[in-house]
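Intended use. Records such as the 16750_t:CDS:1 entry shown here are meant for training and evaluating sequence-to-structure methods. They are not intended to support clinical decisions.
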Amino acid sequence: MSISSSKQLILSTYRQILKEINNQFTNQNNNQLWRKEAISTFQQYRNLSNKEEVEKLTKDAEDLLCFLKIHGYSEEKRIELTANRVGLKLPIMMDKQINEDKNLYTEAMRVKSCK
């Protein structure tokens, strides 16, 4: 990986992490702690030149970003994504099916009463 593409990847990951932190923590409850910690951590390693260390920290940042994105999903969405990842499709849940059946029945009755 070249230096310029590595730098672009790091900056992109940094921006995405800040965006996720703002969406999940800062905007919801005005908690600046995560944002300040992310900024200080990235600034601490700003002038790092050891290639192996840069790659390790970049991987850690990407893992953090993945965690933050998944943390923002509902439990149902996380389960669906996990099932999709291993090639499964979740069955339609019974309560969803009942609601759909009720909606179809209601619609049929409404159409029938219009005739």
